[in-house]
Write a structure and sequence with these properties.
It contains ten helices and no strands. It is an all-alpha fold. The chain folds into two domains: about 60 residues, Orthogonal Bundle (Tetracycline Repressor, domain 2), CATH 1.10.357.10; about 110 residues, no CATH class. The radius of gyration is 19 Å and the shape is elongated.
Length: about 190
């Protein structure tokens, strides 16, 4: 068997085990290697760590759900409304894959390079039309996305603190509207 086949089997095994697991954080490297019919050392060889493999598997699952995002983005809408809809779409995916957040959010926030979905950054840049530096648009995008991811990870604590239930669609939509209004302000509103 060639290396790419082994790498693909490991990724597929991780995806299958994570999707089937009630508690994905309990899936072990040994289980993944056994399911893939691969040597345990191959996980580190191809992915550098079990965490990297697991997060690539989660990213692959979520990427499938993000593909229809283009249908959500109506370029006829003003940027605030588009940003709200894109954020809402991503939040709906987070709710659907709540069981993965304990694994994916800390890894994304602490181990991976900082990044945000390009759609979000483009909408923010369009809204500000070069009135603010690109770095500021990037900071706004990062603040919205990373804080929202943190709130999903700490949803119970955030609910106790604020009364906002991130699992409730209506509460989540109110939170997102507030975030969009907070960060996308016209010059006259500042």
């Amino acid at each position: 068997m060639d290396e790419q086949d082994t790498k693909g089997r490991l990724l597929s095994a991780a995806i299958n085990l994570l999707l089937a697991a009630e508690f994905p954080n309990k899936v072990t490297a040994r289980q993944i290697a056994k399911e893939a019919d691969a040597n345990l050392a191959m996980i580190n060889y191809f992915f550098k760590s079990k965490d990297e493999l697991v997060n690539q598997a989660i990213a692959a699952v979520i990427e499938e759900k993000v593909k229809p995002l283009a249908s959500v983005i109506d370029n006829q809408l003003e940027p605030r409304e588009r940003l709200y809809r894109v954020l809402n779409y991503y939040c709906d995916i987070s709710v659907a894959f709540q069981k993965f957040l304990e694994l994916s959010v800390p890894y994304k926030l602490l181990a991976k390079p900082l990044e945000v979905p390009m759609e979000i950054l483009e909408i923010i840049e369009e809204f500000y039309q070069h009135r603010i530096p690109v770095q500021y648009s990037r900071m706004i995008a990062l603040q919205i996305t990373s804080f929202t991811e943190l709130l999903f990870l700490r949803a119970a604590d955030f609910r106790a603190y604020s009364g906002i239930n991130m699992g409730d669609k209506r509460h989540r939509e109110q939170y997102l509207r507030f975030q969009v209004e907070l960060f996308l302000q016209d010059k006259s509103e500042e």
